[in-house]
Amino acid sequence: MAKQEDVFKTIVSHAKEYGFVFQSSEIYDGLSAVYDYGQNGVELKNNIKRYWWEAMTMLHDNIVGIDSAIFMHPTIWKASGHVDAFNDPLIDNRDSKKRYRADVLIEDEIGKIEEKINKEVSKAAKRFGDSFDEAMFRQTNPRVLEHQRKRDELHERFAKAMEANDLAELKQIILDYGIVCPISGTRNWTDVRQFNLMFKTEMGSTADGAMEVYLRPETAQGIFVNYLNVQKTGRMRIPFGIAQIGKAFRNEIVARQFIFRMREFEQMEMQFFVRPGEELKYFDFWRQTRLRWHKALGLGDDKYRFHDHEKLAHYANAATDIEFKMPFGFKEVEGIHSRTDFDLSQHEKFSGKKIQYFDPELGESYVPYVIETSIGVDRMFLTVLCSSYEEQQLEGGDSRVVLHIPAPLAPVKCAVLPLIKKDGLPEKAREIQHRLRFDFNCHYEEKDTIGKRYRRQDAIGTPYCITVDHQTLEDDTVTLRHRDTMAQERVSIAEAERILKEEVSLNSLLRKLL
Fold first, then answer.
1. Which candidate, 160, 196, 448, 167, places its Cα nearest to that of 311?
2. Rounded to an integer, what distance in angstroms lies between the CA atom of residue 301 and that of residue 166?
3. What pLDDT digit, counting tens, does each position of 153-174 carry?
4. Pairing of strands 414-418, 464-468
5. 1 pLDDT band (50/70/90 cuts)?
6. 192 close to 89: Cβ distance less than 8 angstroms
7. Are 74 and 60 in contact (CB under 8 A)?
8. With DSSP H G I counted as helix, E B as strand and the rest as coil, what are the percentages for the chain, rounded to 5?
9. How many domains is the chain partitioned into structurally?
10. Helices then strands (H, E): number in the chain?
11. What backbone phi and psi angles, to 5 degrees, belong to 464?
């Protein structure tokens, strides 16, 4: 675990050093859990959003997009339940003066027990080699069985306490299992209490006439309140979906793990409207469709898993998370939920407006059911960054750091490098870069040796480098270097352009989804 934590720290450091992510307001000592995306980070982030947006709106004839406002009428959040129920169970340690989410402390304890089980399995696998039967070992080994019993017991108590919103029981679990403060190492805990996560502000020109409004904690409600506008103006017929990418804000008390949990973040959400009674069919469809979107990136199929919710939100009748194996364990990247007709029915009730859909095939009106897919842009960014980072030892004692970012998502698709800064090579390299920049982000670089320039491009994940030398001036051929293999081939400028367009285009990813 310590080694993985060290790897994660290295990745965070790399993200800053190479212009991916900066601490917000750093020259003023920073703002906790708020981050800025640098020159390479914003390119990667935009490419992730483009991949999601085009997969949703271009590959599905019945999905369109909107961009709703961040500020919304405050009654919307009353109708959605956020005013009354959007809370986290918080607990303070009296010695360290630090505040934690009680549920996260308990989840971490469950994770520690699971880690003990995995270590026992790993040691046994090394000891027995090819003859090792993992399933049998898990079913018969006394230490594994004891850890599993403790884990299941803790999980059952935790699930019941969360279901019942029993704050006293959450504290008792923390005390019974000896969960200590990570800072002070003590068990001197306060009682658990609820904390609403929404940011409040005021809208209006005078203090007396100001309206209390919220920064939206999710983008979904903007889709729900516009559902009928889109349906009518787009002449949409059920089933259909509405997609949106936008900022959301949550006053997270326990914001940690870099950009995994932030106070200002970005979501990519799609709400899919279906007939009542057909929601579970479409829930399963989107469950598989979204996993296929993730796996098309080639980050490692074994790093994904589904986590079906045992405790469902009051509005849902099915829910699952797509989890990805981060350096700090399997964590949620995307959620797929069957939200029933809760949201639309609530807005119909609170607004007093009829927002039902008339189904011409059935000849009746009804409130549609909704399947939601919701993915965090920042978490997806972190997924790509963590899975792409590699430190390689090369022949001859040399080494390099390389980001194996999927080529269509890479911030820079190609770097054009003159071998030396004279003899007309920079001018020729500039000519090639200007030719390529209309199709993709293409950089020019001439400082330092060609080897150092290759290493810099490897570190930001540039899939291809084009080296211009004296032979280029004679026959219009260049050296095309491949990031992952470091292989080099001599090709014409036209052939290099063809290879780039084929390999770095988003189309190469989108075709995998059909």
1. 160
2. 38
3. 999 999 888 878 789 999 999 9
4. parallel
5. very low
6. yes
7. no
8. 45, 25, 30
9. 3
10. 17, 23
11. -140, 145
